[in-house]
Amino acid sequence: FGLSLPAVAVLLVALLCLDPHGRVGSAPICAHGPSGCHIPSLADLFDRVIQHSARMHSLSNDLHSEFEQYFLPSKNHIGKIYRKCHTSNILTPNGKDNAQKLAREELTEVILKLLMAWRDPLFQLHQSMAHQQDFNSFSSNKALEMGDMAHELRKGVEKVAEKMRVLGMLGNSVTGLSAAEAMLPLSDSGEAMSDYELLYCFRRDSNKVQNYLKILKCRIVPEHDC
Amino acid sequence: MRNSGAVLILTFIAILTLQAAGVSPPGKPRLTSCRSPEKETFTCWWEPGGDGGLPTTYALYYHLENSETVYECPDYRTAGENSCFFNKNDTSLWVNYNITVVASNALGKNISDPVEVDVVYIVQPNTPEHVTAVVVHDEQGPFVRVSWEKPRTADTRSGWITLLYQLRVKQEKDKEWEEYNAGMQKYYNVFSLHPDKEYMVQVRCKPDHGFWSEWTQTTYVKMPDYITRERSLWIMITIFFVFIVVILTWTLNVKRNSVKLCLLPAVPGPKIKGFDKQLLKSGKSEEVFNTLVIQGFPPTTDYDNLLVEYLEVYDNEEQELVQDGKDLSEDCMKSKSPSDIDSGRGSCDSHTLLLEKCMDGREGSGSNQHQYSQHGETRWASTESSESQDPEPGSPESANGRGKTWPVVFPSPQPQPHHHYPVGAAKPAYHSVPEILNHLSPHAMSSNYHQLNHQDILQQERRFSKPACRHSQSYNQFNLDGIDTPAPGVAPSPSLEYVEVQRVNPENMLLLRPLSDPNREPEGSDCTREDYSKVKEVTSNNILLLQRDMSHQCVDDYSQADQCTTQQPPHPCKPAVHQSNSGMPQEAIRVMGNGYVDSTVLMPSY
Fold first, then answer.
1. Are B155 and A96 a contacting pair at CB < 8 A?
2. Buried residues in B168-187 as b, exposed as e (16+ CB within 10 A)
3. For residue B150, what is the nearest residue in chain A, using CA coordinates?
């Protein structure tokens, strides 16, 4: 019986697929140990997250000063009412001693909480900035980038925490990581915060994150830059 | 209501009175700045607004954001006058401080404007410490290594604060500083400093978000005196190139001639004889070109070079038929080329009838072949055939248009002597010879072959014997069959010999006689004659008029009648063909010295 060419091709493909040896699998790149590829050390991971947080903070700083420059001419105007930032519920050390007194796990938890708390507000900030005519596209892009950075930073810090846990530096008392819930940026009065207030609050919180990470790093891996 | 009004008026009057006295409540103080050197403490300074003439006290009050609790400054002393120092316990980061200063004196107080301060953003560290600048000697040259230490108060080790450093360098005389960013490191290498100069160095630092510190005190450093390797290298290169250039220049100078020749090859100038370049440059072209004109060109007078002794006629087509080179001597058959050129050929090959080597003593050969001189025989034949009917001399066209050949006799095969008889004769003789031959030798092979039958000639001779002229003639034998006996009295001429036509008998036969014939009669007046006949003139009919000496007999059977008549030969001259009493053409003919006519007059001018 004669088989047409397409039928033959189909049969061959089917055979290939069914054949387990014909399957293509993926192999890890670093299968052969540290010599095969470069696994970043904890110090490297810390350096990366610290750099990331520095960039994030500088972005927030720029946006805030831009906002202040164009929309709030008088710096020390009376009546500038700052509502509480929505992250003020999170207990954060407000001094060096306090920060050094905190355990690594708690410090890490604080960082993660802060970053988690800003996931949605940053997105909201970008949305509102994009819709407003006052901001140019450059600023709204900055806000978008800022939001992405916060997200990336959180992922990075989670990896660092994971690594620390693997290395035994972190105890198992860190429970807040998974339980961090998203908090709505609502003030006490329940009103939504304005863009400026968001920027103001985020600028401060990004600075906190950067500082805490530095302390953490110099406490855990005090090789250089400390 | 009345009381309050009275109080107001009284207060007003009191103020005025006080002002008149020069005292007043204090002026409004102003907070100038707040700074934190290490992000752990901070200090605020204010300036008083005026004391109003009375001792004034200042108090600083602050409250934290979102809190109404007002605190007063804990330390007015540490930081100096009009300052408030907040220690660690009182400092909270990431919290806004609302600070006001109140100035008060006996008459009243005054409150300054509030200031919002977040400590994190007012960090200005102290200056770096222990700045040192050291000259380090390297193989590439010395440089300055500047090192310092962090300000004592800043805690960078715990990572609480991150400092960035900056240094600046200049010479004493410079206006601008050269700034370098050192990052977070505490040293810096400064290169490209000039040797033997003194430099000033200063360092400052800044937190990642904050204010720059003040510059440190100037540190002086002096560079040593040295020659940079780069400069010495350039010096050497320059010297080397100068040297090369000098050498090249000198070489070029020495060889300048050959260089000139190489670069500017000589352009050949015009080398025209008589061409004057200067005249050309001056622009008078007519004079220049006039010199190029050669008078008398094309040459019409100098015919010396163009004289051809023997003019040859060719008939190319029938040449091959005649020639048979097999059993003929090589010499005789040298060239059969139909061309007219006789240059480069041996005499055998020449078109003239001078066959030197071709002549043997022999006569006759077994063959019936004639050797015939390259040229004329066929020509003869053709002309004969074409003009045989023409008794007149006619116009002796030469096939080649050149001239006329006068082949008189044709060489026989090698044993036979060849005699060439120069024919200065008129055409009639020319024409008549083949007739003679044909007549004489009916057994001639073809019209191409002509033979002068010796015997026949002899017979003719006897028939037409000339009593007065007893000449022993040797006749050439051109007998195909070969005549063994030579003509009587005629020794075979062994070598080159001219034959001459003695006379033409009435039957238009050429009677030939070799010039070197020993039997030649001494000159009887009758028979002596010149070897050559001189052509006196050429008529318009292209007839040569021959001239005879007066004393000689007339052998001009072939000559014109008038000559004969004038000379009155003893025996009748038989004009061969044509008697013409026509007047001689008055053309000027140049007669050569040896009696030959310059035949170039016959040539059409080209």
1. yes
2. bbbeeeeeeeeebebeeebe
3. A226
> Which residues have a Cβ under 8 Å from the Cβ of B28 and sit 6 or more positions away?
B49, B103, B110, B111, B112, B113
Q: Three-state DSSP class for B96?
A: strand
Q: What amino acid is encoded at A160 in this protein?
A: V
Greater confidence (B238 vs A33) lies with B238
pLDDT in tens, chain A (226 residues): 566 888 888 888 877 766 666 566 666 566 555 566 677 888 889 999 999 999 999 999 998 888 888 776 555 444 455 667 888 888 899 899 999 998 888 899 999 999 998 988 888 888 888 887 665 677 788 888 999 999 999 999 999 998 888 888 777 665 545 545 555 555 445 567 778 888 889 999 999 999 999 999 999 888 877 8
What is the distance between the alpha carbons of residues B473 and B220, in angstroms, rounded to a whole number? Answer: 142
Contact residues on chain A for B114, CB-CB shorter than 8 A: 76, 78
What pTM was computed for the model?
Answer: 0.52
**β-sheet bridge partners, residue B35:** B43
CB B529 within 8 A of CB B553: yes
- Strands (E) across B429-533 are located at 499-505, 509-514
Q: Which of A94, A217, A226 sits opposite B95 (nearest CB)?
A: A94
Tokens of B591: 């007669």
ipTM above 0.85, yes or no: no
Option in A61, A204, A214 nearest B159 (CB): A214
- Identify how many contiguous H helices and E strands chain A contains and give both numbers: 8, 0
Of B65, B94, B162, the CB nearest to A207: B94
* Residue B187: its H or E element: strand B187-190
Give the mutation candidate from A199, A204, A205, A224 for the B interface (greatest B CB count, under 10 A): A204
CA–CA separation, B316 and B336 (whole Å): 9
Cβ distance of A96 and B158 shorter than 8 Å: yes
Strand (E) positions, B425-515?
499-505, 509-514
Task: Please state, in angstroms and rounded to a whole number, the distance separating the CA atoms of residues B52 and B15.
Answer: 12
CB contact under 8 A, B65 and A82: yes
Enumerate the β-bridge partners of residue B123.
B36
β-strands B187-190, B143-149 pairing: antiparallel
Q: Write the CB contacts of B7 (distance below 8 Å, at least 6 apart in sequence).
A: none
Q: Residue B150: is it exposed, middle or buried by C-beta count within 10 angstroms (0-12/13-18/19+)?
A: buried
Give the pair of three-digit tokens for residue B10: 């009284």
